């Protein structure tokens, strides 16, 4: 569960200033819903992304195909463990920026380009790696090349886009400065990019991207096998021997069903992203020969790649976050399949129906995986296992795994017995929210790389303005896992907190196989 920062004034020391502020303001309006309010925010963000993406792709993709692709992309984006997360907001801003540029370029208007620049500029304060929104300028270059427009127009359009981006950045900095939050923000705004041992180290990120792409390529084999089986039916009809032709048909069908079954059981989202990307690229190259589709399809392909890639930039999850940004790629990829189907239908109806059946089975496998096997709706584990509830009014209507429910219920029960309002918690930051405790260090997420261990050690011994020493809750298990996994080796930050406990007058208030709760002896 992502940390929920309800006290915005004390919790802006991250590089996601506007994202936290947006979450905070939304919660002030819909907080009566409890945690469901932040689920609602995530759902709304995804649906708005789908709406603006649909408005773009429907220009060249048949409505039914476009809606099917949008549906797949929504299910894919819903299959994400975080709530009210800056990654889904990043994708929404990327879609909105692409929509503005698409409108400005196709209608030859400067105002939408300026708006696109403003969106790109403001996005940086939602998440620092969003500075790569600069890559959207490449779409302006492509459009001017294929349209053979004057260089002066290209420079004018690019200048307007960059001007909007610069003004947005300037306004953001000024706004944060005016509300006296710039100093704490600036301290950690770049910290996520620093720290040689952090998971965001540049070399580690690059290595993760490379291995992630190679792994995804390896996992595309079942998809390729299914496509080969479907395509090979084009040549089976040429076999003159009836028995041989039927045998080959049976083999193809068996292999196709085996591939579908494998995909349903061992689904790999990065592989699907690559398949969509490759299909769309092939379509872009093909349609370059068609004067009707030449500019638009390839332009949308550029936007689709950028929207899928931007949430991966600066992330330590390799290319997994690409699944959040399929709103343009998925409809385009399905339109290629539909185009091939129409070509076959005019030549050989039997082969076309076989391809249609195979595509239907594959889509059914994807949908089954999204909704049941991989969870969907922010739950990464099997949906059938998400049946346990946390005993809190703030969590009504929300279910989780048995391990998480047990951990949270125990923590809430034991913390409710302690009157001390301050707490230090390593991981499982939602416990602050559920137990109504105040972060002793004026921040959650002390296990994040954006909070260096040197600063943790310094802050622990400089919080003397508090009325009393805090409660300390140290998990023995990985609180970010949906099943119970014991921590094999404690982190340096955990050791620092344990040293803080030993150097002060603490006692164990509660201990089990999942956690230890320390309280000051004076409590």
Automatic annotation (TrEMBL):
Top-rank lineage group of the source organism: Bacteria
Alphabetized UniProt keyword annotations: Membrane, Transmembrane, Transmembrane helix
TM regions (residue ranges): 25-53, 65-84, 113-146, 158-179, 223-240, 247-264, 270-289, 296-316, 322-341, 353-378
Keyword Nucleotidyltransferase part of the UniProt annotation: no
Protein name listed in UniProt: Glycosyltransferase family 39 protein
């Amino acid at each position: 569960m992502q940390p929920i920062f309800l006290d915005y004034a004390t919790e802006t020391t991250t590089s996601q200033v506007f994202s936290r502020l947006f979450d905070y303001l939304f919660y002030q309006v819909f907080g009566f819903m409890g945690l469901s309010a932040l689920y609602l925010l995530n759902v709304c963000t995804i649906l708005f992304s789908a709406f603006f993406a649909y408005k773009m792709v429907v220009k060249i993709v048949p409505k039914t195909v476009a809606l099917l692709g949008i549906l797949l992309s929504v299910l894919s984006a819903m299959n994400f463990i975080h709530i009210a997360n800056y990654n889904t907001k990043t994708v929404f801003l990327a879609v909105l920026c692409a929509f503005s540029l698409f409108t400005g370029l196709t209608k030859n208007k400067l105002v939408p380009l300026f708006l696109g620049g403003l969106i790109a500029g403001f996005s940086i304060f939602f998440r620092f790696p969003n500075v790569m929104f600069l890559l959207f300028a490449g779409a302006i270059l492509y459009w001017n090349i294929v349209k053979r427009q004057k260089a002066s127009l290209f420079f004018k359009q690019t200048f307007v886009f960059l001007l909007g981006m610069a003004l947005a950045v300037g306004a953001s900095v000024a706004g944060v400065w005016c509300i006296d939050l710039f100093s704490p923000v600036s301290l950690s705004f770049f910290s996520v990019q620093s720290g040689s041992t952090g998971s965001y180290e540049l070399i580690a990120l690059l290595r993760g991207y490379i291995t992630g792409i190679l792994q995804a390529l390896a996992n595309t084999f079942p998809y390729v096998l299914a496509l080969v089986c479907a395509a090979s039916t084009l040549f089976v009809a040429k076999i003159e021997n009836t028995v041989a032709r039927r045998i080959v048909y049976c083999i193809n069908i068996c292999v196709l069903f085996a591939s579908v079954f494998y995909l349903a059981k061992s689904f790999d989202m990065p592989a699907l992203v690559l398949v969509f990307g490759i299909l769309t690229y092939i379509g872009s190259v093909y349609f370059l020969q068609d004067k009707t589709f030449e500019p638009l399809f390839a332009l949308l392909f550029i936007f689709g790649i950028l929207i899928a890639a931007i949430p991966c930039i600066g992330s330590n999850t390799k290319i997994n976050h690409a699944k959040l940004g399929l709103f343009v790629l998925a409809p385009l990829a399905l339109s290629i399949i539909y185009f091939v189907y129409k070509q076959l239908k005019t030549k050989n109806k039997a082969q076309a129906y076989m391809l249609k059946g195979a595509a239907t089975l594959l889509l059914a496998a994807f949908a089954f995986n999204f909704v049941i096997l991989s969870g969907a709706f922010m739950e990464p584990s099997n949906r059938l296992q998400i049946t346990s509830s946390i005993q809190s009014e703030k969590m009504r209507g929300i279910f989780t795994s048995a391990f998480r429910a047990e951990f949270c219920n125990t923590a809430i029960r034991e913390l409710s017995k302690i009157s001390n309002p301050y707490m230090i918690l390593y991981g499982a930051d939602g416990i602050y929210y559920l137990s109504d405790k105040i972060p002793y260090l004026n921040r959650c997420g002390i296990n994040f790389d954006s909070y260096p261990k040197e600063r943790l050690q310094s802050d622990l011994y400089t919080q003397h303005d508090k009325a009393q020493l805090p409660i300390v809750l140290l998990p023995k298990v990985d609180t970010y896992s949906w099943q119970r996994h014991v921590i094999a080796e404690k982190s340096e930050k955990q050791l620092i907190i344990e040293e803080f406990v030993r150097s002060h007058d603490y006692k164990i208030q509660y201990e089990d196989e999942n956690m230890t709760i320390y309280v000051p002896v004076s409590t």
